[in-house]
Design a protein that fits this description.
20% helix, globular
């Protein structure tokens, strides 16, 4: 019986898989603003955050100093994105955040600035689809990040802290093989126990 319990516990541990998580900031350590393409004005940027002023329809474009490989998230389908930001605006302004690979293909997420407060807080964004402007498939290696505003011309001041990328735990191939082995062992132990109880 103890062997069976240990096998079941091992199965659960293997099946839990590996969760992936990564974080980048909008600070000077990770992000370079493209001032020619952005319509937001940079108020300040330190090592970990970026403060912008503009309107609710302003856009931000910039590149990562080092690309971040999120290809383990199966082209974005299993990828959840949380934005850490703050704003003093409480109005209902939508925005789109887009992650681009080097070929210009991207995955889009949406949010609303009213979800944030006047101090940095993290809000999960909603997957909105893909933008295959490069004519291919989003490969998950992010080199550029853009934020597009909605249609309002109302003033908007925001501070962007970080983006956190996460995914559900997915069993590794070796873990799947181990899981199959544990299942076979468990079945054999159950069969042996049943046969023993008949005698």
């Amino acid at each position: 019986m103890n062997t069976l319990r240990l096998s079941l516990i091992a199965c659960l541990l293997v099946f839990s898989g590996t969760a992936h998580c990564a974080t980048i900031t909008f600070g000077t350590d990770d992000y370079v603003v493209d001032t020619n393409a952005s319509t937001f004005s940079i108020s300040s940027q330190n090592a970990t955050s970026l403060t912008l002023s503009g309107s609710a329809q302003s856009d931000l474009y910039g590149s990562l100093i080092n690309s971040i490989d999120l290809s383990a998230y199966v082209s974005g389908s299993g990828l959840s994105v949380a934005l850490t930001a703050s704003t003093t605006s409480t109005s209902d302004y939508n925005f789109t955040l887009e992650l681009f690979d080097a070929d210009g293909d991207g995955v889009k997420y949406t949010g609303n600035w009213s979800s944030f407060t006047d101090s940095l807080s993290s809000v999960s964004l909603t997957l909105a689809g893909y933008d295959l402007g490069g004519g291919g498939v989003f490969d998950g290696v992010v080199s550029t990040i853009a934020i597009y505003g909605g249609g309002s011309t109302a003033a908007l001041n925001i501070t962007l802290g970080s983006l956190t990328f996460d995914s559900a735990a997915v069993p590794e191939p070796a873990s799947c093989a181990a899981l199959a082995g544990f299942a076979t062992l468990g079945a054999a132990l159950c069969r042996r126990r049943r046969l023993g109880s008949r005698r």
